[in-house]
Specification:
This protein has ten helices and 16 strands. By secondary structure, it is α/β, with parallel strands linked by helices. The strands form three sheets. The chain has a seven-stranded parallel β-sheet with strand order 9-10-8-12-14-15-16, sandwiched between helices. Strands 1, 2, 3, 4, 5 and 6 form a six-stranded antiparallel β-sheet that branches. The longest helix is centred in the C-terminal third of the chain and has 17 residues. It is globular. It is an enzyme of class 3 (hydrolase).
């Protein structure tokens, strides 16, 4: 059995060059062929090395993640085992971490929508937000997903959205930014624009998509790791020398995750992703958040009333990995009648991660993007997440991450969320309640 892994290697020139090239796509490709790799690891030569600092699980600084300063790098490789239980913890002293499959949190296709995007806009009081200039102007929103199709968005919203193609990210061989097949990522972009129509999109297609209208299949966590390294590099230089900031803020939408623990390393393995806050991807997510990026993740679709089949009947502890990081805002879903959708994953999170997830609830299962057909809803916590990301982008129009860091903004969104009927404090269904962007904005003085 050939198992993909993330291997941690000490700094060496081929790894530094690979990482530098990945951050500077205009440079000639750099090969990993001369990298020193332990016997038993089959290196994926197509995967650019990712600097991870000391790699000890301690908090890394931005400086320690620069390719020429990083002590360790993550590379993608494969190991041969007879059984998943035999995956080694390390090879010649080099730690191995899980590289599980990841998938979009879309579900319940073919079911009728509840309300429309117009209803969502009304519930979020976008007219009042727009009247105060809270429309996402100058804010970058990264859609980490299957890719964006700008032409479809233009058809649906009546104007061409803003896209920063130069700072978008794409794996080798993928379409140009904004020219991806109409699919899950296009849905997410549309849902962001409900509340932040003037935000600038970054197209970050980490998930593989099929032909237009087809089912999305997912990708691997290693690809998301590369994309987050790109976003960190982009955001670290977002303030142009001699001028003002290139963007006021960076919001990162992640409507994906893991449906079942069987997708990951077996329980007890120290390199497992889903319950390990020191996994390289979760650690890099924390660095991005500390740098001032607002990172949102969907909670998942393993709710007790209507769990997705990929949950395999597991409905407890299903919010896991970076989706359960204390540094991100984790979204549950409700319909436009403020009723929690039955598939929305409930808290608490998987053991070993921050327990009080989800954080808040946003709207889903409404007729919006029509990415999957003229009558198909934008569904799953996949839709709730970008709806909330648009709300964050709208607030960031006038509230900088320097003045109010991500943790402070998320706390304000939680404090101003509308409690569900009978709710008192945090609960496992709605988190702190249903998002109330207007109240949060006013509480922050905008």
């Amino acid at each position: 059995m050939r198992v993909p892994v993330l291997a941690i290697l000490p700094s060496q020139e081929p790894l530094q060059e690979s990482a530098i090239t990945a951050l500077n796509p205009d440079r000639p490709p750099s090969s990993l062929a001369n990298a020193e790799v332990p016997s038993g690891l089959d290196l994926d030569m197509s995967f650019a090395a990712v600097p991870i600092g000391s790699g000890t699980g301690q908090e890394a600084s931005l400086e320690s993640l620069e390719p020429n300063r990083s002590e360790r790098f993550a590379v993608r490789a494969f190991v041969e085992v007879n059984d998943p239980a035999e995956i080694p913890e390390e090879v010649d002293g080099r730690p191995l971490f899980g590289d599980p499959a990841i998938a979009p949190f879309l579900t319940c296709g073919g079911t009728s929508p509840v309300g429309t995007a117009t209803d969502v806009a009304r519930k979020l009081n976008t007219a009042a937000l727009d009247g105060r200039g809270l429309d996402g102007s100058g804010v970058a929103v990264a859609i980490v997903d299957t890719g964006i199709n700008l032409n479809h968005l233009r058809t649906q919203i009546g104007q061409m959205p803003l896209l920063d193609a130069g700072n978008s990210w794409r794996p080798p061989g993928s379409p140009a930014p904004g020219a991806n097949p109409v699919d899950h990522g296009t849905m997410c972009a549309y849902d962001v624009l409900i509340t932040a129509p003037r935000a600038t999109l970054l197209d970050v297609p980490v998930l593989r998509a099929t032909a237009p209208g087809g089912a999305v299949t997912g990708g691997f966590l290693s690809v998301a790791l590369q994309a987050f390294a790109h976003l960190l590099g982009f955001w670290a230089v977002a303030f142009a020398p001699g001028g003002g900031p290139r963007y006021k803020a960076l919001v990162i939408n992640n409507s994906w995750g893991i449906f079942h623990p069987s997708w990951d390393f077996p329980p007890g393995h120290p390199g497992r992703y889903i319950d390990n806050p020191t996994h390289p991807f979760t650690a890099l997510t924390s660095v991005l958040a500390r740098s001032g990026a607002d990172i949102l993740f969907a909670a998942g679709n393993c709710g007790t009333q209507c769990a997705d089949g990929r949950c395999q009947g597991r409905t407890t502890g299903t919010i896991c990995g970076a989706n359960a990081s204390p540094d991100v805002l984790t979204l549950a879903g409700c319909d436009t009648n403020d009723v929690r959708v039955g598939y929305s994953s409930r808290g608490p999170s998987i053991a070993g991660m921050f327990q009080n997830k989800p954080d808040i609830t946003a709207y889903t299962h409404f007729l919006g993007s029509k990415a999957f057909g003229p009558t198909e809803p934008d569904s799953g916590t996949s839709a709730a997440c970008p709806v909330a990301a648009g709300c964050v982008a709208a607030i960031r129009t006038k509230v900088s991450p320097t003045a109010v860091p991500p943790a402070g903004l998320f706390a304000q969104l939680q404090a101003t969320a509308r409690p569900a009927a009978g709710q008192a404090g945090w609960n496992r269904d709605y988190g702190h309640g249903i998002i109330d962007t207007d109240s949060a904005a006013q509480s922050l003085g905008v």
